[in-house]
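Entry for the shared binder. Reason: the reviewer on the internal report wants the predicted structure included alongside the sequence.
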Amino acid sequence: MEKCSFRQVAGFYQYNSRRMPGIFHQKDYKMFPPSVDWGNINWNTRKPQMDFPVQSVICSLEDVQSIKPGKVRISGYAVSGGGRGIERVDVSIDGGKTWMEATRFQKTGIPYIADGISNDKWAWVLFELTVDIPQSTEIIAKAVDSAANVQPEKVQDIWNLRGILNTSWHRVHVRIGHSNM
């Protein structure tokens, strides 16, 4: 690793402690409370959002998809900002009444450990779980990061004017019917 002088480190710190001058940081990455609407928005009252909360997404199933009853593989990804690892991903197949922990990995065949030295903290963590789905239901995924941050249950709890950082539980409705799955 290359050595840095004090002057280089001090310059880097000074640069990173200022507000970002780019157009995207001036408007696109700002979150406002529910009381703000397009008629009273003041872009200068908020700092840009430079971190993002824990989130997970189910990728193997689409919302309102028809599936055959039986074993179904649920898979997707989870990620958290600030270099925080993913401690666990919980999956529910009964609308959130009960939960099962999914298997996490970044590289096929290598278990993922949230604070493991060989895992990438700034990258997606893949998850999967195979479950028996006997009837139409709502499947939910929620992630928890290494700082114990958990996804909020409903979008209403985090709604804001621009809709950014909507990281509420990911929900997929499946119905039993004719399918190629």
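Summary line for the report: The chain has two domains: 6-45, 55-176.
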